[in-house]
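Appendix C reproduces, verbatim, an entry submitted by the partner laboratory led by Prof. M.T., so that reviewers can inspect both the input and the predicted structure.
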Amino acid sequence: MVRLLGRSQARSTHRADPTRARHTPARRVGHADRAARERFWGLRSALSGRSVAGQVFVLQVAIVLLLVVAAVVALVLQVRHDSTQEARNRSVAVAEAFANAPGTREALSSRDPSAILQPRAEAAREATGVDFIVVMNTDGIRYTHPKPDRIGKKFVGTLAPALAGRTVTEEINGTIGRLVQAVVPIEAPGGKVVGLVSAGITTENVGGAADRQLPLVLLAAAAALALATGGTALVSRRLLRQTHGLGPHEMTRMYEHHDAVLHSVREGVIIFSGEGRLLLANDEAHRLLDLPADADGRPARDLGLPPDTADLLASGRMATDEVHLVKDRLLAVNQRPTDVKGGPPGWVATLRDSTELRALSGRAEAARERLNMLYDAGVGIGTSLDVTRTAQELAELAVPRFADFATVDLFDAVLSGGQPEAVTPVRRTALSGIRKDAPLYPLQQQIRYVATAPQSRSLRSGQAVLEPDLARAAGWREQDLERTTQVVEYGIHSLITVPLRAGAMVLGVVSFWRSQKPEPFDVDELALAEELVTRAAVSIDNARRYTREHSMAVTLQRSLLPRTLPEQTALEIAYRYLPAQAGVGGDWFDVLPLSGARVALVVGDVVGHGLHAAATMGRLRTAVHNFSALDLPPDELLALLDEMVGRIDQDETPEDGSAPVIGATCLYAIYDPVSRNCTVARAGHPPPALIRPDGSVEFLEVPAGPPLGLGGLPFETADLQLPEGSRLVLYTDGLVEDREHDIDEGLDMLREALEQAGPSPEDTCRVVLDARLPSKPGDDIALLVARTRALPADRIAEWEVPSDPAAVAEVRARVTRRLTEWGLDELAFTTELILSELVTNAIRYGGEPIRVRMLFDRTLVCEVCDSSNTSPHLRYAAMTDEGGRGLFLVAQLSERWGTRYTPAGKVIWTEQPLP
């Protein structure tokens, strides 16, 4: 709208007032005053007559005023007419009634008519409300009158018609004022007029009620005038807002300007009503849309437009630069509703011919899209170090932005992390397309391309190949005549093949297929495909290298872990080991048989991933093996392991390129099937769980020592008495801790899983991993479940031995009897000899008390314990020595032997294989 100077100045000044942005209490009064002033000036502008609203207001008020005045005058005239008519009717009625009353005619012939008629006339006058009733003779001499002094005088009025037998009514100005009187003849039976009766009434008496109602009528007229004026003011005020205070000349000029602008702009403008009918279309809109001459008033769908354009214009929805093809023009359509700020219902659309602009910007848009796709390739390809996933990301990025179908074929060696060989076939690793039913080779199929195929030429030459028309590409069709025919019939007509090159090494080939666009791939698109594949090749090669290193690390780690569990009868064991998806870590476990049918359980974790963590884990596992051979308690073994890790950290300097061992944890437990006692110590490791025979689950209270390598604090042990059939659950933190759950929540979830597990260790491992194993583990998981067994009492023999050499014979006898009970007579001689030597040494060099114990397990275990801490040493006696051959004989007769220390002394033990 064109804004005219002088009319909008006050409004623009008002909008620019900075005080409107404040809402403090002190400003609110000012706002109210300002609003009142605005209303006053708006009303004054409306009444000024200069604007259209003012002129309408004045005209409407004048019309209403004239109507009110006319109504009042008409009412007054009507009231007067009705009063006169009423006076005529009443005076005639009274006069006729009195003239025809009984005795009236007879009284005229009496000697004194006045004496008879005067009282009757006065009574009738008072009863009927008239001003006078006059009875007279035919000469007009009065016989009656309200004023007695008028009796006998001549009546003033017209008598001739009455003497002729007719009734006469007339308005005269009498002595009592303006009145209406009627003269009625008194006729004898023969029709002769013998007298006259006149009745009259003043108009003042008849119209008095009307005069009293006149003020009320005027008041109602004034109220109607006020209401009409107020309604007119409201209408004028609304008109004032809608016309913005413009006068007729200004509005005319504005319309002329608008009309000139509307039909001269190079943009089409069309306006539709709320019902979807065309209200206005300028000349440019008629030209662009080729509208018919009688388009005004038609719905949008009846204007002969393309369906998509007609649907948009008929819907009224908002649109911004939507491009529609109308005949040979590309029109950019913008559409907005017109009732956003109180406007009339409907919508307006503007049309801009963008055919030339689209043609000029097409190449720039294509170049921008290519740059965006290359940027997205740098961001979206290679998000993981998985070869297959990286290849799929390349295929998904190219479809549908560059091609309708994309395939990635890699050598099998690349998928496993090895070096590809050009003579081997490739495997379809990734496939993406706009549809799923394309007759291309499916995923995972091994393909051997013929020499004439574009893919084979790309693999040999290392260069991209463009096949613009597959229907005429004889070399491509030789690959598989049936399948290639199906591909062409499916609509795929153009192909680009690009080798995946990482330096001088070719990893595979990428194929881009086109079906929907009728134009074949061109040289520019060939260059874009080469750039896209070059960026993806780097990511695929990185994934290949990672796969190779990951496989090497996994192989190293698995070689360092126990391949089979040692034979033992104290525990029924099941285990699981799952490496992390991102890389191998340093988790390990072990089961170590100890002397006396005991078994040690070990679970450890080295924080970190990769070869260094796996190698460090192997060193720690080897150290645990060595330390366990010394038969040390768990706390002492962890102390030695902690000292060893500290030495490793000191030896591995930053110049070596190796990282220190930080965050290594370990849990070491020893279970004795004879006493059912379990001794546990841990170094920064999660506590073990115990499933009792009744199915209840608890986490054992084992003192938490510091992680290995920190030093300074001693380790403590916990001695537990385990019922037979209990399950001891050892694990690493990868099972109970991840990015989504802290360790406390993980322990609660592990408890729930253990409560649902079956009775066997295998069932326990399966249920725990099904419940707690994440889809993509970020850390290694080691799980070890051991169900306790107890050595039967009838397989245990134990005696106290006095410190007397003569007691050795009694020991030999008891041993022989017990071996006979066990059915081990073949071992009697060697066992007697072994125990004789060990008991003799204990009596000679040890201290009391001395005890002998035999265990019938997988082997025959013989133990001699005393209170001395002195350990015997094996030596080879010379030919001339008389002694020193006892331990040598023991070592030769037993399969294993050794010494372990206890808080009360030492134990010398031997193991003999069963026959």
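The first helix runs from residue 9 to 15. Additional entries are available on request from the coordinating office.
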